[in-house]
Design a protein that fits this description.
The structure is a single chain. By secondary structure, the chain is an alpha/beta fold. The protein folds into two domains: 134 residues, ATPase, nucleotide binding domain (Nucleotidyltransferase, domain 5, 2-Layer Sandwich); 173 residues, Nucleotidyltransferase, domain 5. Helix content is 47%, strand content 18%. It is built from twelve helices and nine strands. It has a five-stranded mixed sheet with strand order 3-2-1-4-5, sandwiched between helices. It has a four-stranded mixed sheet with strand order 8-7-6-9, sandwiched between helices. Helix 3 packs across helix 11 and helix 4 runs antiparallel to helix 9. It is globular and about 65 Å long. The relative contact order is 0.16.
């Protein structure tokens, strides 16, 4: 039987997405699961294996954009071994931000700034040279990420509760209402500690707060606005560093990740780095392009346009 479909996976810290795509760039299958970053998810193999179940038949090629790949020799080898066992077809593995950059710029030069659960930037220069900054993890990096924003918000919340900083624009009342906590200081402090003690997965839970902080900022909350501004400044340093490292080229930049859906954050970044270029394809699109090329398909303008339309129709644009 002629093998006529490809598989693409985008594996991040919070979620993992699999697409099976036909030669006409239409989507045959879409599957979603939890995060698969081996630095954060001990059971990442089961996540990927569950997505790849029954995907070997009629498979021409596959491409995997995996968080953590290339960042640890041991984990990268484990990713290679696991994916080889799950996918006997020709396949390619890249860091998830590298894959997102390929999708955003359609394999052309540029800088992709990703802020999701973690943060990192990947750049490709005019001469084809690549470089990356950030992606150091939550212990001493990931500045400007959703987890970083959530952690900073929790710190400011606790400081407001005990009086170390001013409770500006009702930050405590907004944050308390978000969780259904009482506003009275002693009771609220106890509710915060109880919430933390009962978290099953700390990073995703804390990262999820970033969406609400962005919403509070748009509503005029000064504490939230300050947090968003700090995040933008931290993320802008990624872009500046990559432009410097790639021979001082003022490369265009684009974005990916849930944190970047915040218009206030993107506006602040535009003031620091210039207006961003809208991504040509979302991160999973980069993995589709790599798999399609590996399968020998023509990935010209028509294929890319159809793929963009397919992703948009599937709610993945």
């Amino acid at each position: 039987m002629r093998k006529t479909e490809i598989v693409a996976i985008d594996g991040g810290g919070t979620k993992t997405l699999l697409l099976r795509v036909r030669p006409d760039a239409t989507i045959a299958l879409c599957r979603k699961a939890g995060g698969s970053n081996p630095f954060d998810v001990p059971d990442w193999r089961s996540v990927v294996a569950g997505l790849m179940a029954d995907q070997q038949a009629n498979l021409a090629a596959a491409a995997f954009g995996m968080a953590g790949f290339g960042e640890s020799g041991r984990l990268s080898r484990e990713l290679e071994e696991t994916l080889a066992s799950l996918c006997p077809a020709p396949h390619s593995i890249h860091n998830d931000v590298d894959m997102a950059c390929r999708g955003a710029f359609l394999n052309r030069p540029g800088i992709l700034l990703l802020s999701g659960t973690g943060s990192m930037a990947w750049g490709v220069g005019e001469d084809g040279e690549t470089a990356r900054v950030g992606g150091w993890g939550s212990l001493f990096g990931d500045e400007g990420s959703a987890y970083w924003i959530g952690r900073l918000a929790l710190a400011r919340f606790s400081q407001c509760l005990d009086g170390r900083v001013e409770n500006e624009s009702g930050f405590v009342s907004r944050f308390s209402a978000l969780h259904g906590w009482p506003e009275e200081t002693v009771l609220c402090s106890a509710a915060l500690q109880e919430w933390y003690a009962n978290l099953d997965e700390v990073r995703p839970s804390v990262a999820a707060l970033a969406l609400d902080i962005g919403r509070f900022a748009e509503q005029g909350c000064l504490v939230s606005r300050d947090i968003v501004t700090q995040a933008a400044q931290a993320l802008a340093r990624h872009v500046h560093a990559l432009r410097h490292r790639l021979n001082g080229q003022i490369l265009p930049w684009s974005y990916a990740g849930g944190t970047m859906r915040n218009p206030m954050l993107r506006e602040a970044l535009a003031k620091e780095c210039g207006a961003p270029q809208a991504p040509g394809l979302p991160p999973i699109g980069g993995a589709v392009l790599v798999a399609a090329e590996l399968a020998g398909w023509d990935v010209g303008t028509h294929f890319i346009a159809q793929l963009a339309a397919s992703l948009e129709a599937a709610g993945l644009g």
